[in-house]
Structures are given as C-alpha cells and as structure tokens.
Write a structure and sequence with these properties.
Distance between the termini: 44 Å
Number of strands: 9
Oligomer: single chain
Largest sheet: 7 strands, mixed
Mean pLDDT: 89
Strand content: 35-45%
Order of helices and strands: EEEEEEEHEEH
Low-confidence stretches: none
Shape: globular
Number of domains: 1
Structural class: mainly beta
Length: 128
C-alpha cells in the first residue's frame, strides 16, 4: 500500500513541460509506494518511490512492480531519471516521516519528481 500525492507542475498556457513525456506531463497524482498509506497505484495514479539520491537529498522516481517488489523504472537505452521541473507533495504526515527516515532530518516541503528520460544520443548531443 502507498500514499497518494499531488504532482505540482507549471501547466500554464505557453509553458512547455520539460519531462520529455514523463508522468508529470500525463498525470496529476502519484502513489508513493514506499510510504505507509491506504492507496495503491492506479492507471490514473502511477507508482513512484522516494529515495535518497545524494546524501541528504531525496527525489521521487517512477517505479514498477517486478516480481512483487517495487523498484525504480529502468530504461537501459536512456539516461535518467532526471528532474523535469515538477514536484510531488502531500500534507499527510507520513510523507514527511518517510523523508526524515531517508535523510535523518525533519522535512516539510515538496520533493523533486525525476521523471525525465533521454536517449543516450540526445543526452550526449547536449554536451557537444
């Protein structure tokens, strides 16, 4: 079971979603599957995992169920996941408790959603 959280992204007219077709361009909510809660992923509420990416910093990443275990989505032909400009948040205290468990620090705020993947070719082209 997991915890439903909202996706916060700029969806104003004229603003381009920078997730390269990631979940923030398609959905308004996610289910945090490594948080305690009453929710489950649904077709309109995909699964994410909150993980400690760099010491003291957390991110939300797309997740998939592999043989009964939730794991980060792996796309071997792509680079990512990267931040595309969206965030996830819920006012449920279990969200802050999960981030505190991962970082060792009390937390209040939103977590960057890393839902952008790029092909290796596109990624390398950015550095030519």
């Amino acid at each position: 079971m997991g915890l439903t959280a909202s996706i916060f992204a700029n969806k104003e007219p004229g603003y381009e979603n920078c997730s390269n077709g990631g979940i923030s361009s398609q959905f308004n909510q996610v289910c945090i599957v490594n948080a305690e809660g009453p929710s489950e992923p649904r077709p309109d509420c995909p699964a994410v995992i909150i993980e400690s990416h760099v010491r003291g910093i957390v991110r939300a990443i797309p997740a998939q169920n592999v043989q009964g275990q939730w794991r980060a989505v792996e796309m071997s032909h792509c680079v990512g996941p990267m931040a595309g400009g969206a965030f996830v948040h819920t006012s449920d205290s279990r969200f802050g408790e999960l981030v505190e468990k991962l970082t060792g620090t009390r937390f209040y705020g939103a977590v960057a959603l890393h839902d952008r993947f790029e092909s290796t070719e596109d990624y390398n082209r950015n550095f030519d």
